[in-house]
């Protein structure tokens, strides 16, 4: 009881301190700044604790670390969630009904659940790496840009996606579909890496999906399936389809926020540079070369 | 706040000085308009006194920083010197002496007329002051190299003008054409040569340098196909083809992409 009261009182003070610490590392990507902020709080616990003690908050060691970790994670979520929230708020998730018979679930409920699923992944530090790329993908509007081009060019990859997923999706529904996969990926990864006794391969996919179905309710299995396949080793378009390959490329491409242009005309654009290097490393990363080639030709034409 | 009005004054004075020089040559010994002749002389003297004051203040202030020697050789001190004291004693003072004493004191007048005959060539050093503004050498490699080329071009034109003056070939039209040639040369070098230098040398090195130092900078350097064999492009090609892919492998661990190792690769299995 005493702890919970102190906890509530300490929250605004600790949040101010976290905000100041994040400001200090303003030049860093927020996800990269997290480790620095955490380091600062955990390397100087006495200073922070003393500062809080003076205000009447008393912590024991275990409680301090747990409390600070949770607060840093939720501060990070607020910091990076803006483009994700915008996507979730402006997206109609009705297309998900075409994958399942649960047509009674309202769109608002779906939206709330997807928001919760994404936010929940912040509690698992191992999934931060995928949260980072998902946030960057929404921040840089990657899906809108590339899916529109793939759609209008009627590219080979797009033809395969239509065969594998749906022939009747509009462009917006494709963007929403891929966006939803990127939103659930971090939590799918967190569940894959913790607690599941099954080895992760194609044969065990349905077992895993059953095991996590409650965490992702009411999302259709197809979404979790695509996210799961994007983490499987190797690249096998025949078995997995093309979508996991595309997801893996986009995820890797936006893991690190692209650097601002510095030398006009002496450097290639960010996406084009990344895709050219990825083509050289395609075998190392098990990337689908056809996907890289098509994305490269788009980036080249559009000077992205 | 304090710097901006000072800069504005400096630019206005520079513009006046650049316009004044050709006018002074054009109206020298203009018997029809003596008042204009005097006005141009006084304006020239005022400009040179302004620049002499500037040189004096900068010399004194340089002592508080890195010393007069650094200012003179590395921070345009020599340009300020040429534009102030040299212009004052070799151009403006002879001009004023000719204006007021030229006809009354024959011997003195003759000496200053001879001295003033070099003015057309000396006035060309004014262009260096213009070059300092549009090609500030302390702001990067490209500007420094452009500055050196600009100085060489101005020096070349100055030598031609000086030879003309000494050999008695000096005329108002040749003086004016050489003065404008220096101005245009500096402008063209700043506009075209600097861009060429950036695209073929300094920016290419900058891209490679940023790629090597900055974690999230992974842009490919653009290679000029016509000069692919140049040392700088050979370096850029190596950076593009070997350094950046290796950097990507180091930055993004392949295991983190598909993070569950030990399971069979379906491609290999089939």
Written account of the structure:
The complex is a heterodimer of chains A (304) and B (270). Chain A has helices at 2-24, 30-43, 45-54, 61-80, 82-90, 107-120, 128-139, 142-152, 156-164, 171-193, 205-212, 221-229, 237-240, 243-253, 270-280, 282-285, 289-302. Chain A is mainly alpha-helical and 304 residues long. Chain B is an all-alpha fold and 270 residues long. Chain B folds into 2 domains: 3-190, no CATH class; 204-252, no CATH class. In chain B, 76% of the residues lie in helices and 0% in strands. The model of chain B is unreliable at 262-270 (pLDDT under 50). Chains A and B meet through helix 10, helix 13, helix 14 and helix 15 of A and helix 9, helix 10, helix 11 and helix 12 of B.
Topology (elements, then pairings):
The complex is a heterodimer of chains A (304) and B (270).
Chain A lengths: L1 H23 L5 H14 L1 H10 L6 H20 L1 H9 L16 H14 L7 H12 L2 H11 L3 H9 L6 H23 L11 H8 L8 H9 L7 H4 L2 H11 L16 H11 L1 H4 L3 H14 L2
Chain B lengths: L2 H24 L7 H29 L5 H7 L2 H25 L4 H11 L2 H4 L3 H9 L6 H26 L5 H42 L17 H21 L2 H4 L8 H4 L1
Helix pairs in contact in B: 1-2, 1-7, 2-3, 2-4, 3-4, 4-5, 4-7, 7-8, 7-9, 8-9, 9-10
